[in-house]
Each structure stands twice: as structure tokens, then as C-alpha cells.
Amino acid sequence: MKLFYGHYLGRITSVSVGPFVHIQEFSRAMEKRGHRVFVFPQLDMSGARIAARSRVRLLSKYTKQFKNILQNAASFFREMRQVQSCRPDILIVRYSLFRFSILAVSRLKRIPLIFEVNTPMAHEIRALKKEFFYFPVLPQMFEKTCFKMADALVVVSEELKKYICRMGIPAGRVHAVPNGVDIGRMHPRAGQSRRPLPFSAGKGRVIVGFVGSFNYWHSIRSIYDPMKRILRRFRSVQFVLLGDGFTRPELERRIREDGFQERIRMPGFVAPEDIPACLSKMDILLAPYPVLDFFYFSPLKIFEYMAASKPVLATRIGQIAEIIQDGVSGCLYGDEAEFVQKLSRLIRDRKARTRMGKAARKRVAEKFTWDRNAARIEDVCNALGKGNGE
How many CB atoms are closer than 10 A to CB 192? Predict the structure, then answer.
């Protein structure tokens, strides 16, 4: 089967690593299953070491939505040329708000279209992203129309499926497929990085780590006070927070004011190829997420942490509580007190860390690999191909 896998991402930056990893790993998994995958545009890794910061110009604040809508004209011709060139059996496109050119291509070429929906963007800009202005109702209208016109939707969680079905989309057209991990890449004995690691793991030191973007959906700020309590309680502990993003400057300021620069390290953005080596040098990994009424995420971070055979301390919410078995393959917390209690236990008990890490890797190897993810989407593609008379 030939698959066109489209997206609307630019160059990789510190806050867009996840989407690039998803595209790359899913494509590889599909190719291993014998399919030919045309990624369009090709992944641009040239900016992989650039740590982007948020700078929104005043004019852009109000014109972004119209700019995205107008870009569909150029996108249509680029996509049409690529589809005519590779002649795919199925179109799989990473959904992006206000980008609907691929719908026209799908209809004109009579090729089934699957939207890969990783986030409900209309909801996200209303609830989390405040830096741009959007007209009321317009994002929801575009999103609902795109979902209705697609032949199938692949979403990353059951919560996201329920949300989309409430729009009136038939449940049979919406397929919940969690993200995954490449077990081989995230090996606990990862090879050396091509560059020196941005931190050192000294003898007797316990490294509590975080790797990811400092963005709205990573709630590092919410655990800053509990982190200080841990540092006062355990002299051997050092926090290493790798990544960059919109919320990083505020956290750095608080760390400086409290005098914790040596014990809470923030080296900045780490290129994706260096992450396995970084994880291998950490002892405990954090995955703090905000407690939201609608938690629709399928965090790549969780799968990669677990594949690295590390105990994960994560918020007890949404799909995370289904992936991690509390006390077996990791630990879950609901408030600051439980965060401090469970992190203290992991710091003290090295054997428990080792046991949970092994159980974590075993669980993702059995349930949450990119190959399993690709197999489920392969079934969706096959069903669409048969329905299209192929």
C-alpha cells in the first residue's frame, strides 16, 4: 500500500519535537510493515538545535487565523502535485486548524482521507493558548466541517474520541489509537551521545529528570514548590530539566531568586538523537500535567521514559492513569503532598526504582509500540481501501 503522510509543520524546534518524532516513528513502523510512505513536506531537521521562544507581534495576534486560511490556496497546488506524483492509495494527514486544502485534493482524486487528530485545536486555543485572537465560533466551525468531511479520524485517546463524537461524528469513523515508542531506540543502555551530556551524574547523586517542552500542557510550574521541599530534605538530589519553551523564563527566574541554580539545572534544548543517552543517566523521571477536566493527551514522553527502564512519577489523569500501573510500573500522584511522598520513596529505595523501571519497559513493549500503533492504523487503511472498491 502507498501512503501519503502530510503535515503542516515547519522546521523542528524545542516545542515541536513530539510531532516530528511521531511522524518519523510512525512512518518507519509502516515501512517495516511493507508499505511505502511519502512524507510531505519532508521533515526539516535543520533547526533541531534551535530553542524557539514565543514572540508574537501585535499584527500577527489578530491576523494569524486569516493567514492560515489563505495558505490553503498554495497548499492545494503543492499537495495536488505531490499526490499526482506518488499516486497513493490512502491520504493520512496530521490535522491542523484552518488547513483544509487536502480535503479538496481527496475529493478531486477520489482517494480516501484519514485525519490524524492529536489535539482538539479549537478547544485548545480557547482554553490554553491566549497569545492569538480568534473570532468566536469560527475555529469550532472549521474543525467540525473538516472532521465531517474526512473518511476516517485517528485520534490518540478515548477522551478525544468522545469529544469528537459529541460533535456528531459517527463513532465508527473515529478510531482511538494511543501513541507508542521505538523500544530499540529508547534502550536503557543507550549509546553515548555525539555531544557531551548537558549534565553530570556524580556518584551517590540521584538525578530527577524532565525532558520536554516548557509549554502549556507540561505543568512543571505546579511542582516547583514540592521540588524545593525535596531539595531541602535530600542533599543528594539534583533536578535536571531539559528543554525550552514559553514557560521556561519564569521558572528560571524563580530558581535564581531562591538560589537553587546548582541543584535545579536547566541546560536548555536537547536534540532528539541525544535524548536516549540523557534518559539513561537519570534515575527518576517526571511527567507533570495540569489537572484538566478534559485531558485528551497521549504523551510520547511517558512511553519514552518507560522504554528507558526508568520509574516515572506522573499526574494521575486521563490516559496516563491507564498506561502506568501505580506502584508497579511507575507512580501516580494527585496533589503536592502525594508528589512529595512518592518521590521521597523513590529517592530512598533504589531497588524499587529498578523494579519499576523493568516493569515499565516490559509494559510498553507489550502494549505501546509504534508497530502496534501502525498495525491498528493499517486496519483502518485496509477498510477504507475496500470501501473504495480497491
Answer: 10
Q: CA-to-CA distance for 30 and 116, rounded, in angstroms?
A: 15
Pick the CATH number of 206-367 from 3.30.70.1120, 2.30.30.100, 3.40.50.300, 3.40.50.2000: 3.40.50.2000
pLDDT averaged over 10-residue windows placed end to end, the chain, 390 residues: 94 73 95 97 67 54 79 96 97 96 98 97 77 77 96 97 97 97 86 71 89 80 93 96 88 95 92 89 94 90 96 96 97 96 98 98 97 98 74
**25 vs 171: CA distance, rounded Å:** 27
Q: CB–CB of 17/270 below 8 Å?
A: no
Q: What cell numbers appear for 263 in the block?
A: 541543584
In the structure grid, which three cell numbers stand for residue 32, read together? 517495516
- Rounded to an integer, what distance in angstroms lies between the CA atom of residue 175 and that of residue 194? 39
Task: Indicate the CATH number of 2-180+370-387 among 3.90.550.10, 3.40.50.2000, 3.30.930.10, 3.60.15.10.
Answer: 3.40.50.2000
pTM (two decimals): 0.90
Strand locations in 36-183, DSSP E?
36-40, 90-94, 113-117, 152-155, 174-176
Residue 191 burial (10 A CB sphere; 0-12, 13-18, 19+): exposed
Rounded Cα distance between 7 and 92, Å, is 9
Do the Cβ atoms of 151 and 384 come closer than 8 Å? yes
